[in-house]
Specification:
- Helices cover 40% and strands 16% of the residues.
- The chain is of the alpha/beta class.
- The protein has a six-stranded mixed beta sheet with strand order 4-5-6-1-7-8, sandwiched between helices. The protein has a two-stranded antiparallel ribbon with strand order 2-3.
- Strand 2 and strand 3 form a beta hairpin.
- The longest helix has 18 residues.
- The chain is globular.
Amino acid sequence: NNVSMHVNEGEIVGLIGANGAGKTTLFNMIAGVFPPTSGRISFMGQEIQGLPCHKMCRLGIGRTYQIVKPFVNLSVLDNTVVGALNQCKDVKSAREKARKTLDFVGLGHRMDVSSRNLNLPELKRLELARALATEPKLLLLDEVMAGLNPTDSGRVIELVRRIRDERGITIIVIEHVMKAIMTLSNRIYVLNQGSLVADGTPEEVSK
């Protein structure tokens, strides 16, 4: 509802609000799941509202999902190959990219395991790996720490920082873990019932 926001290249921007505030709906519009009923979405100078998901992904918008749904009959490696095929022209190069991506997220030692045998922290990392393998310029993270204990959440915070710092990927993150969002974000937007009610630095928003 008349949401206006911007994200600068290289930022980590937080998106917070109660359940049902419209956070994932906003992600779905940015990622092309469904078009906005009004307004426009610009990405790197190009208007993209209404484009389908696969074209958004090809442009460089990657995302994870709140509920992790791997291809349970595929290995961890092959799940990641699916993402890598977004930019790779053949399966061989996609497999190489998938291996490097799994090493980056800390799942290299589990690449031959069936995804159905992963625990929750590993599933969250697989979800990140699949998105990273698409070579995003902008990464939308939807509650990537949900259900994790404080130790595993801390590891994900470190990984998200590395994604920005080492890979130069801009990130928007939806998260209910306030310690995580306040630690990670350069700026934060607050949604309530589909409308923006606050934005600013973590310090400004917390006040």
